[in-house]
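Structure tokens please, single chain.
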Amino acid sequence: MHSVKEKLSNVASTTKEHAKISKAKVDEKAENVRARTKEEKKLVTERRKAKEAEAKMELHQDKAEHKAEKLDARHNRVIHGHGHNDTAKGHNTQGHGLHGHHTTTAGSKLPATTATHPAAGHTTGSKYL
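Here you go.
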């Protein structure tokens, strides 16, 4: 989900960048009409290029922020127990790796591993072995 959010945010930032570049070009044309000498027209062109560069710089900054938000969201998800291995709570939430064993933390009264297999404790004559 965070990847989708990042992509949508990047699209919005790219749209802003294109709008700023278009505005800079329109401003350049309007200022070129008022400019009388070649030097003034060169200055107008340089201003447009500076505005375009600023818009591109802001786009890259926004993309970096979006990537950081995505990574922060992933990091927070892992820390708060939604990740692959939640050792702070004493169990593996990934669904594989320990295969039938439940690890506990050091302060627990249970041994380090206990069998969690459904057949543990059943007699051999059990119907549901």
